[in-house]
Write a structure and sequence with these properties.
Mean pLDDT: 86
Number of helices: 13
Distance between the termini: 196 Å
Order of helices and strands: HEEEHEEHEHEHEHEHEHHHHHHEEEEE
Strand order of the largest sheet: 1-2-3-5-4
Structural class: alpha/beta
Low-confidence stretches: 441-446
Strand content: 15-25%
Largest sheet: 5 strands, mixed, barrel
CATH superfamily of one domain: Response regulator
Length: 446
């Protein structure tokens, strides 16, 4: 016989005999406590195993998977341990590797980071309040489509809805959903709803595909997603303009409620009628009070008051008119005096006086200058006259010129028969050379 502590110690020793183990399973209920340790459960179809990652080992253990997510399939490496106070064994993990869906989830996290960096998760377009036509992408045989139609019947029977059928599960589903979104966008709908009922994460995986996310981003009208249940969040929910928790919630989001609209019309009509009634009552009350006033009961007195006001205004107008006329007359007189002083005739007369005075001064100045010039020119004239050739001619001298105007200085240059002109003091004498005698040689030419 052994005690509980002894048995627990034996079990712990036996478990440690396994050494390091690698255990594959699905992560469930991951939790990080305040101390920094990470606790979770590994499970498969028939068993569960508690697992722990001590704080010091967290960076190394989670390096391959990042954050632990519910449902991810992983391989945990570590050793087994027994906690004696509770008699429970657990796996102390120092390394985690993604497996199967776990690897897909790791790829999904990387894709989310990529799309977030590209800005695909930042757009939130407003939904039309009354879309002319609503487009729906889902399977015609799925419960999601029936839930959508049932919600339409409750909110607005017969509201225009167009369905483009697509598989919503399986390997080819992602491309079909993306193509269906494009077809609805080209058909002219005002809003597109992508919906599917709940299921396992593997069943919803086509809504985590990049091709569907980019089709939603490329859609020219707002897109609403209603995939799975409220706790399910797929990649398309992050890219869509609005995320609904379920297909029914998506239908309630995009389809207006006819009864609520009619109720709003009725309520606004009642408000309008009440406002009009109050306005009419107010006007009637004002008319009644006005009818009771003294002026309206004695219209002659009202006319007398108006007449007195008209007379007072007339007196004020006459007085103001007289003042204006007097001011205008005074201004005109001042302007006439200024105009008289500045009239062209007066200016001409003043100018003529100035011209006459300037003319007298000019004549006197010119006479004085001419006299001064005469006095300066008289001696020069006498000197010029003394050396003038005419004065020489007066004394009996003459000047002989050849036909070309040159003065004859040397008789030897002349020829017999050449025409000459002799200038004397009283005129000119034309002559012909008959003979030439040179004083220096004393010779005679013939």
């Amino acid at each position: 016989m052994v005690s509980v502590s002894q048995l627990t110690a034996r079990i712990n020793t036996a478990l440690k005999g396994f050494g390091r183990v690698a255990v594959e399973g699905e992560i469930s209920r991951p939790k990080t406590v305040a101390s920094g340790h990470v606790f979770f459960t590994l499970k498969d179809g028939s068993a569960v195993l508690d697992a722990k990652v001590w704080r010091s080992a967290v960076p190394r253990a989670l390096a391959s998977v990042g954050k632990l997510t519910e449902g991810a399939r992983v391989v945990c490496h570590g050793s087994l341990d027994v906690y004696a106070p509770y008699g429970k064994h657990s796996l102390i993990v120092d390394r985690i590797e993604p497996r199967g869906m776990g690897a897909l989830l790791a790829d999904l996290e990387r894709l989310k980071v990529q799309l977030r960096d590209e800005g695909l998760m930042d757009r939130r377009r407003p939904l039309p309040r009354f879309p002319a036509r609503v487009g729906v992408v889902t399977s015609r045989d799925a419960d999601a489509w029936r839930d959508f139609l049932r919600t339409r019947s409750l909110r607005w029977p017969g509201y225009p809805v167009r369905l483009v059928h697509s598989r919503v599960q399986g390997q080819a589903a992602a491309k079909e959903v993306a193509a269906a979104i494009g077809r609805l966008d080209e058909s002219g709908v005002d809003v597109v709803v992508v919906c599917r009922g709940g299921g396992a994460i593997e069943d919803l995986w086509c809504f985590n595909e990049e091709v569907v996310a980019r089709a939603i981003w490329a859609c020219s009208v707002p897109v609403v997603t209603g995939v799975g249940h409220e706790s399910d969040t797929t990649l398309v929910d992050l890219v869509a303009d609005h995320r609904a928790h379920t297909p029914t919630d998506a239908a309630q989001t995009v389809l207006p409620e006819r009864s609520a609209l009619l109720e709003a019309f009725e309520r606004q009509g009642a408000y309008l009628g009440d406002a009009m009634e109050r306005a009419v009552e107010g006007r009637a009350d004002r008319f009644a009070r006005a009818a009771r006033t003294l002026r309206l009961r004695t219209p002659v007195r009202l006319l007398e008051e108006r007449g007195a006001r008209v007379e007072a205004l007339a007196r004020r107008g006459r007085s103001a008119s007289i003042s204006l006329i007097q001011e205008a007359t005074t201004r005109l007189e001042r302007l006439a005096a200024r105009l008289e002083r500045q009239s062209p005739m007066a200016r001409v007369v003043r100018a003529e006086g100035k011209v006459e005075r300037a003319t007298s001064r000019l004549v006197a100045a010119m006479g004085a200058r001419v006299a001064a010039a005469d006095r300066r020119l008289a001696p020069a004239g006498r000197a010029l006259e003394a050396v003038s050739p005419l004065a020489v001619l007066e004394r009996g001298y003459s000047i002989t010129r050849r036909a070309d105007g040159r003065v004859v200085e040397d008789p030897s240059e002349l020829e017999q028969g050449e025409e000459l002109t002799t200038i004397v003091s009283r005129g000119e004498i034309d002559a012909t050379v008959r003979a030439v005698r040179s004083r220096e040689r004393g010779a005679e030419g013939g």
